[in-house]
Amino acid sequence: MFKNYIKLALRNLWKNKIFSGINIIGLSIGLSVCITIMLFVQYEKSFDSFHTKNIYRLDEVQSWEGMVQPQKVALSMYPMASTLKNDFPEIINSTHFHSTTDASIRYNDNKIFFKKALWVDSNFFKLFEFRLLKGDAKNALREPKSIVLTPESAEKLFGKEDALGKTVSTNNSRDTMQFIVTGILDHLPKNSHLQFEALYSINSFVSPDDINAWGGNWTVTYLELTPNVNIAALEKKFPAYLQKYMGKDVIKGYQLFLQALPDVHGRSGDITHDYNNFQKFDSGYTQVFSIIAIIVLIIGCINFINLSTARSTGRAKEVGVRKSIGAHRSQLALQFIGESVLLSLIAMLFSILIVKLFLPYVNRLSGHALEFSIFSDPFLLIKVIAATVVIGIISGIYPALYLSAFKPVQVLKGTILIGNNKSFTRNALVITQFAGAAFLIIATIFVVRQLNFMQNKDTGFSRDQIVMLPGAYKNWYRLKDELLKNTLIKSVSGSTQRLGNNLHQTGVSFYGNGPVKELATSHVLVDHDFLSIYKIKLLAGKNFTREGEGREIIINETMAKEILKDTPKASIASLLGKRMQMDEDTTTTLVGVCSDFNFNSLHHKIETLCLYNKKRGGYSDVCVKIDGARTEEALAYLEVTWKKIIPHFPYEYQFLDDHFAQMYEADKKVSRVVSILACLA
Fold first, then answer.
1. I want to staple 461 with a disulfide (CB 3.0 to 4.6 A). Which of 31, 324, 534, 618 is the partner?
2. What is the biggest distance separating any 2 CA atoms in the chain, rounded to whole angstroms?
3. What number of other Cβ atoms are within 10 A of residue 361's Cβ?
4. Is 373 helix (H, G, I), strand (E, B) or coil?
């Protein structure tokens, strides 16, 4: 009987090729979307799953006076890794590291530039299960001046030569040091939130003062905890721990919390200074995509149901004849469901082909590395087949019951009437289908408009034709003077941090007419041309004088309001000339108040900000305003000048516009994916 059902199903599908083709296309698209999103969700959830230990990241909540809102940060203090391990039996092991993006390394005449390297301690490989192809993981980073390379870095630097034991020189644009290659890593998994090109032993850089330096947050700390540890109970012990080492008054602005390693990649959207989180993604988007995939699939199923019931007249005679010769309704219903399942399985084969063909494009679109090896993964194959059969049954059950209910006498007499209930059901299905499509279209419009708003909103400063150059430091003054000799360069400024990054936080003391105000604020050291190059407006006071004439500070409007919140009638001009102290050795004079500007992405509120100008050795970031009408000439001149003055450091530039665009890369991906899914619907 089963064999007969298959023959009948194949015959009917072939007989009605156009109908079958339309249904197969509709279901194929729905299944393709579902499979692709399933791969995407599976990839996102797989991040760091290859680490088998119970690892947590130590994060902080900072809530100092003067902050617009508490801020979660992925940074912690250097001494915390060792003291936490010593003080809490729940902590088996700990490691911490610091990232750098401005290091070059040389071996003989070969030189490469690291976009991401980590300074790690000797416990790094005790927690993270990155495999070494060469070297001993237990001792590779124990000694100072040790370096572990990835296979890609080793090949670029040494070619086919064995790198282990070789001495290399590394330069971070300020200092040159000699390191011995003590290990070669295996290729890093693509689904690791930690991505790097080299690991330096951190004890090559830290001083004895760093070991007991409480208050400065510049490392990332990970802890290995005992199995089944009560996280909430452990976190409740942290305030007493902070008080022990920092004092009761200091800890008011700090709160420690733990984040499970599997959550670091997808649940860190509200955590700042998260520099080491590769392809950081909001896991909420995976739920959105899953909902959209279900809607697309429902639309495909409803389309199948409507087409099947629309062909009721064409199949009515078949039902009448088969019933008149003794076929039961259950047998007919089973036949129609079987046809639906068979059609779904054919659609599944086409959907697999579609996914295979379009997955490279999806990877380029999303920046991910999705892989689809369904026939080499039995579990995945079983899941897809089972889901397809269920979809076939769901899609076919209503048409099967509808068609098998025809009475043979009415059919053979040609007096079939479609009841009101049947019409109502079909109308409801059509309405549901169009409602789903309308929802996706509205969602697409909303997402696209939101993205356009973020990209085009006035941020309060100019980014036009500004080129960023990293790593000038002690060569800063000479570089600036040389660049300004050419008319291709309109202006040059420098800073210790780049706009668009999470700026460092510091505590400041404001000495006004009343009690001293203690505030926390973002701050950046800048040269005297900073405001002019970015066209940031002054609301009160004056711009910085020539560098070296004094220690001056300019605050933004948000900080001025925070200082004056207890005296609302006072004007911002009343703040001018007052003294502000950033640390024991740094006393400044407030010379101006500038308008607020979004120095971070629009996902963040505007925070309090201090721009600090003083005589210093140089700046890490150079911002250059070029002649927009002669862009290529200006870029060529920048390269020649850079290589002339800073030959030991690679020339790399980035337009500030592009830097800010990168902050919305995740939003762009979501916008593109939602748009494509809406079109498919």
1. 534
2. 106
3. 10
4. coil
Give 261-290 pLDDT, tens digit per residue.
Answer: 999 998 888 888 888 888 788 777 788 888
Residue 430 contacts residue 589 (beta carbons within 8 Å) = no
Tell me the C-alpha distance between 614 and 551, whole Å.
5
Mean pLDDT of 621-626: 93
Least confidently predicted of 52-61, 125-134, 179-188, 312-321 = 312-321
**Lowest-confidence range among 77-81, 249-253, 259-263, 468-472?**
249-253
Q: What DSSP line would sit under 526-549, residue for residue?
A: B-TTHHHHHTPPEEEE----STTS
* Residue whose tokens read 């219903």: 333
Angle at the Cα of 72 (from 68 to 74), degrees rounded to 5? 145
C-alpha span between 406 and 418 (Å, rounded): 10
Residue 183 pLDDT exceeds 90: yes
Count of other CB atoms within 10 angstroms of residue 603:
13
Buried/exposed 222-251: b ≥16 CB within 10 Å, e otherwise: bbbbeeebeeeebeeebeebbeeeeeeeeb
Q: Are strands 517-525 and 609-613 parallel, antiparallel or unpaired?
A: parallel
201: nearest Cα among 101, 125, 108, 261:
125
H/E stretch holding 293? helix 284-310
pLDDT for the residue 421: 52
Residue the block writes with tokens 């990877």: 363
pLDDT of residue 74 exceeding 80: yes
Half-sphere exposure of 658 (CA within 13 A, CB side): 7
Report the candidate in 157, 246, 650, 681 with the shortest Cα–Cα distance to residue 432. 681
Q: Region 28-45: what's the mean pLDDT?
A: 86
601: Cβ–Cβ under 8 A, 6 or more apart, which residues? 454, 500, 660, 663, 664
DSSP notation for 275-287: TT-TT---THHHH
**Measured CA angle at 579 (ends 575, 582), to 5 deg:** 115
Q: How many CB atoms lie within 10 A of CB 210?
A: 16
Domain spans in the chain, listed from the N-terminal domain onward:
2-45+283-451, 55-264, 466-650
Mean pLDDT of the chain: 84
